[in-house]
Amino acid sequence: MTKYSANNIINKNSKAYHDIVSFQKTLGDIIDENRCDESQYPIILFPNSLVDYIDEFRDLDPDKYLSVGNIMNFIIKNGEDTETIQNDWQKYKNEPIVPTLYVPRPRTPQKKVAHKHEVLTKQKEEIKVFRPGGCLILSSLLFLILLVMTIANKDAGYILYFLLWIPAILLGVAQEGLGEKIKKTVFRKRSKEDIKRDEEKAEFDYQQQMDIFEEDYQKQLEYNKKLPTLIKQYEEEYEIEKEKFQKKIEEREDYWNKLPILIDKEFCRAFSCMILEKISTQVEYKRIDQENMPQKGATEDTLFYALMKYGVTDIKTDVFVNDYYPDIAIIGCGYMIDIEIDEPYTHKTKRLTHYIGCGDEERNAKFQETGAFVIRFSEEQITNNLGTCVEIVSKIQGFAKTGNCIYLNEVQKLYYSIAQDRWTKEDARCYMIEDSREKQKRKENGN
Questions:
Q1: Which of 1, 132, 284, 367 is 20 to 30 A from 64, comparing alpha carbons?
Q2: Which three-class secondary structure state does DSSP give residue 252?
Q3: CB 43, CB 374: distance < 8 Å
Q4: d(Cα 191, Cα 222) in Å, to the nearest integer?
């Protein structure tokens, strides 16, 4: 029988294993390509909450992280409608307990003998007695000597001394408290009534104990008579439990054989739900009046129109978000994409713009902090590769709406097909001197 354990690594040939490794590489590559110096167009930036998670996720070693137990817990935690999956996993993840046959042993009945309590005829007691103090004894001796001398001499002076000594003895008695209190043990003979009562109680306790011993003895005899029947009953129960155990083993083996298919099916869904949780955001925006609306370039209208015709939804124009005016914003349920079209200089004022270090990075970071995606195309990419740009926006929206990383695999291919270096301030100045935007416009018009 195959050893199935939650610690087993999922099959490296499975779709789930391939998807996880692919997600690690794809997400990591796309994020790394764009978040460092942002040196190439198109710039594709992800919400910070997602970036932080992907940094942790892609550093995990699949050969250690992708155990069956970890993947199933991930699916149960992040998937949808996983109650049945969780119940089955809890039921079959551990091996069933092997049943054991309990064989009862015969007993050796023994009759116990009770003992009567001894009835005491004498009762031990402790009493307190008083022992005179030393001063009281000495005073008493002097008093007796004085008394004898008074009687012998019949002198009035001795009689006076005798009378004066009496208060002194009384005072000594008061101060001594009649002596020191001590404990003493004595044995007193008990009354016939007490002895009779104790004898009756001892007899009652004896009979009660003998009844208990006799009852226990009879139970042991009865148990030995029923022992063959008990053994047969336990054997029958064991056979039933053994059949149940074998059925559980077969069910568990069948479940584990189907588990790779379940993982392949549910992992992508659970991973997508987790991605959606990381990028979920609620963006507040304001519509701009026509009077306050910033000037739009021709390429912005071109991209807007192409996106609308392609079927991209939730497009918002002329809005104010995060203290900025996006060229085009896609604001859907729980996500936002800020789309910008960069040019090296302005037509009217010839002011150099969007060069490396011009301050766009701060603007991008603010959108990322609020949970938004940022996509920046160059004007030249919109002009020469409009279809690819529209596809990139559509794929990023698909990822933002579903969390399905397959969209990012496609984005990566499209990204490299139109990649273009960003310009420095010096490059922008050269483009302005050459009036490259005007030349491009004339080229489009066939002039």
A1: 1
A2: helix
A3: yes
A4: 47
Q: What end-to-end distance do the CA atoms of the chain give, in Å? A: 79
- Nearest Cα to 343, choosing from 312, 309, 302? 302
Average pLDDT of the segment spanning 171-200: 66
Alpha helix (H) ranges present in 280-370?
298-310, 360-369
Asked if 263 contacts 10 with a C-beta cutoff of 8 angstroms, the reply is yes
Phi first, then psi: give them for residue 285, nearest 5 degrees: -140, 160
Q: Which two tokens stand for residue 433?
A: 């001197």
Q: Which of 337, 267, 258 is nearest to 88 (CA)?
A: 258
Predicted confidence (pLDDT) per residue in 286-341, tens digit: 877 666 666 667 788 899 999 999 999 999 888 888 788 888 999 988 899 999 99
Structure tokens at 368: 């990322």
Q: 164 with 225: CB under 8 angstroms? A: no
- The residue type of 285 is Y
Is the pLDDT assigned to residue 15 strictly greater than 70? yes
Q: Give percent helix, percent strand, percent coil of the chain, each to the nearest 5.
A: 60, 15, 30
Contact indicator for 375, 390 with CB cutoff of 8 Å = no
**Percent of the chain's residues with pLDDT above 70:** 72
Which is higher by pLDDT, 63 or 226?
226
Global confidence as pTM = 0.62
Q: How far is CA 122 from each of CA 30, 76, 187, 387, rounded to the nearest angstrom?
A: 102, 80, 6, 118
Nearest to 321 by CA among 393, 369, 376, 378: 369
Gap between the Cα atoms of 71 and 8, Å rounded: 11
Structure tokens at 161: 């001394």
List the domain boundaries for the chain: 15-66+282-444, 122-189
**8 A C-beta contact, residue 66 and residue 20:** yes
Residue type, 218: Q
Confirm if 117 and 205 have CB atoms less than 8 A apart.
yes
Do 69 and 93 touch, CB atoms closer than 8 A?
yes
d(CA 340, CA 351): 18
